[in-house]
Amino acid sequence: MKILYTDRQLGIFEELLLSQSPISEEYKILDEVLSDRILVRELAKDLPKTVVGRNRMSAERILRILILRHQKQISYRQLERQLKYDIEDRWFCLINEKVPCFKTLQNQLALISEDTIKNINDCVLAKARAKKITQGKRLRVDSTVTEMNIHYPTDASLIQDGIRVIHRLIEKSGIKIFSLKKLKSKLKKPFAILRTIGRKNKEIREKMLLKIISIGEEVAAKTKAIKDKVIAKYHQLLRRVIKQGKQVVRGVTIIKDRIVSIFEPGARPIRRGKAGKSTEFGKVVQIQEDEVFVTNWQISGTMNDEAFLSEALSKHKKSFKKAPEEAATDRGYWSPENFALLKHLKVKHISLPKKGKLNPLEKQRQRNYHFKKLQRWRAGGEAKISWLKRKFGLRRCLDKGEEAFGRWVGAGILANNLTVLVKLM
């Protein structure tokens, strides 16, 4: 059954512990913020309406556990342990009885959608605006990449992953296919050669890759007739990986919609030219901020900065009922249309560097005091992104799937906003 709220009930032992080590002031303020019934009702929209079966965790408790997980950056097993033994976290998450097992915690949090987290974030920011913590005079946007939890992809390793997963699923389902195990074990020798001689010798490397591709084709041919939906999904992915492996051997360097993970097909290879990591495997996260908070975000597979600025302005206007007085971005967001839009909205000071060669008027505009001042403020967005990555998990998503990725990013940003709000209150 769907339950919205939970009353805090402390046992004698817990009351004794809390009398010895009181709850921190930050936890008390965060508890007050999350006690708002509007936030709980927003999250409850994602919970299924059932009238039979065992009672679920309350929506209020699920919201608090979601925030706690991202503040601590822990796995579900660690979360279960934390709620068992940390009296302050038990108090915050309204745990009155036995702690649910890690699988139950995972299943309950998996019900939450990214859109719901955005709605909850909007409610939190409305509370901040009511207290005049932020006034929406400034706007800055920037982008980053959040990686998915995958190994470094090579065509050979992806074919191996596909064969391994299909073999495991077939064994689990009880379908008997002769020589499939033998084909899987055939991969050992070419992989051993790839890791040794193949590292330095291109000819041997290509020869071993062709051998692995031929084994992958044999597996794909033997499992083609299986009707199971899950096996069919991985069979299709294996076919695509084999195809792109053949293209690489032929010398094709640019492959559209390249698969970089059998387990996370939505992951994209994103080249940003960073020192030590030229390519990242995940998704682009566009981040929009006012003076204090992250007010909006958008997840996409490509680095398309220009298109996000108009959405950011629209969101800012909707939230604050006015356009910002000052706006700052990097040159990735430049386009004549974006500059004209900022002028049309009567943004007083615009710090939008132009791509390419500057004419004398544009040089003068970019030497302006307000332009330079806003560019210095914009650089603070890099620090905010670094903070989100280090403290709230936006460096790497540990959950699997497209929906889980959106939830992970949204929950990290929401946890950051709540932490900032608590400190300012």
Description:
There is one protein chain. This protein is α/β, with parallel strands linked by helices and 425 residues long. The chain folds into 3 domains: 12-109, no CATH class; 114-150 and 267-424, Ribonuclease H-like superfamily/Ribonuclease H (Nucleotidyltransferase, domain 5), CATH 3.30.420; 155-249, no CATH class. Helices cover 56% and strands 11% of the residues. Strands 1, 2, 3, 4, 5, 6 and 7 form a 7-stranded mixed beta sheet that branches. Strand 3 and strand 4 (294-300) form a beta hairpin. The radius of gyration is 26 Å and the shape is flat. The chain starts with 11 loop residues before the first helix and ends with a helix.
Mean pLDDT: 86
CATH architecture of the largest domain: 2-Layer Sandwich
For the biggest sheet, the summary is:
7 strands, mixed
Number of helical elements: 18
Q: What is the radius of gyration computed over CA atoms, rounded to a whole number of angstroms?
A: 26 Å
Q: Unreliable segments (pLDDT under 50, ≥5 consecutive)?
A: none
Strand percent estimate? 5-15%
Euclidean distance between termini CA atoms = 36 Å
The count of β-strands is 7
Give the helices and strands as they follow along the chain: HHHHHHHHEHHHHHEEEHEHEHHEH
Q: At the first level of CATH, what is the class of the largest domain? A: Alpha Beta
- What percentage of residues falls in helices of 4 or more residues? 55-70%
Structural class: alpha/beta
CATH superfamily of the largest domain: Ribonuclease H-like superfamily/Ribonuclease H
CATH topology of the largest domain, what is it called? Nucleotidyltransferase, domain 5
- What's the number of structural domains? 3
Overall form:
flat
